[in-house]
Specification:
316 residues, alpha/beta, Rossmann fold, 2 domains, 6-stranded mixed sheet, 4-stranded parallel sheet, 13 helices
Length: 316
């Protein structure tokens, strides 16, 4: 895995930003710990998803036979935005299926980068089913937002940067949607420091992996609506991330909608960082004291900042 992550970093270096790891006095005081924020809101396309998207596209270009004739994906918004930027960079046609009610900030960016947007899903699960059916029917190459080795390796470069900037980190707090980010980060963390604790964060209203880990198998949940639109829904029943989460993630906690709202506001006020709901989920685990990290050295992932202006204004 580490070889794949190092290869991913070389591939994507010209196309993504090395984001800052900054010490947070606000969160450190709340937690009784030393807490740093890894701010992927400042990433290209304002989300960590650019890392995996660029790595997945470049990896496919490197395959024997050359570029695929058509790419297709499903997304709650951020992966679609990152993949649209990568497809535009390398002049590849892309179709993105999203929920009909995906945030306009994300949909507008997908359109700007020239991808064909099909915002017609009832929810993310429906959009993913449509994208996979389209790939099967047309021969287009489906790139999953999470269940793809190249996407995971690209996301894992977040952890490489964290440990290079602060080698003494002993706890990582990571949001979980489809599980690609936490799988990649956990794989790198355990390779560098097997004692490093990896804590995943899901939602009270949508916690498919927490329930699945407890059951010992993937279970389907009825997901509620959330500020964290990027974390809702069920993973693909065949996802490669579940086994990685079972093996590498030490525990999974959940946060409430109130926790998310307080964290979005707190990040703006205390850190001048804009985070969407999913982006603030890991921070929410600290703010709400859902986890005890006293006396630890903690890196918290702010995974993205693509929040609609009206929603951010209403929260503030």
């Amino acid at each position: 895995m580490m070889i794949d992550v190092l290869r991913a970093r070389r591939r994507i270096a010209p196309h993504v930003r090395r984001t800052l790891l900054t010490h947070s006095s606000w969160l450190s005081d709340l937690a009784g710990a030393n807490v740093w924020l890894k701010n992927e809101s400042a990433q290209r396309s304002n989300s960590f998803k650019a890392r995996g998207a660029f790595n997945a596209v470049i990896a496919r270009l490197e395959r024997p036979g050359g570029a695929p004739s058509q790419l297709v994906t499903a997304s709650a918004g951020n992966h679609g935005r990152g993949l649209a930027a990568a497809a535009r960079t390398f002049n590849l046609p892309l179709i993105v299926f999203t929920p009909a009610d995906a945030p306009e900030a994300k949909l507008a960016a997908i359109r700007r980068d020239g991808a064909e947007l099909r915002a017609i899903g009832r929810d993310y699960d429906d959009a993913e089913r449509m994208a996979k059916t389209f790939a099967k029917d047309t021969g287009a190459e489906f790139i999953s937002p999470y269940s793809d080795a190249d996407v995971i390796a690209g996301a894992a470069t977040v952890a490489l940067e964290i440990f290079e900037d602060e080698p003494t980190i002993d706890t990582l707090v990571v949001p979980i949607g489809g599980g690609g980010l936490v799988s990649g980060i956990a794989a790198v963390a355990k390779a560098i420091n097997p004692r490093c604790e990896v804590i995943g964060v899901e939602l009270d209203v949508a916690n498919a992996f927490q329930q699945s880990v407890r059951a010992g198998k993937l279970v389907e949940i009825e997901a509620g609506t959330s500020l964290a639109d990027g974390l809702g829904g069920n993973p693909d029943p065949e996802t490669i991330t579940f086994a990685l989460i079972q093996r590498l993630v030490d525990r999974i906690v959940t946060v409430s909608e109130t926790d998310l709202a307080a964290s979005i506001v707190g990040l703006v006020e205390a850190e001048h960082v804009i985070a969407e709901g999913a982006g603030a989920a890991a921070t929410a685990a600290i703010v709400s004291q859902r986890i005890d990290v006293r006396d630890r050295r903690v890196a918290v992932i702010v995974s993205g900042g693509n929040i609609d202006r009206a929603r951010l204004r209403s929260l503030l």
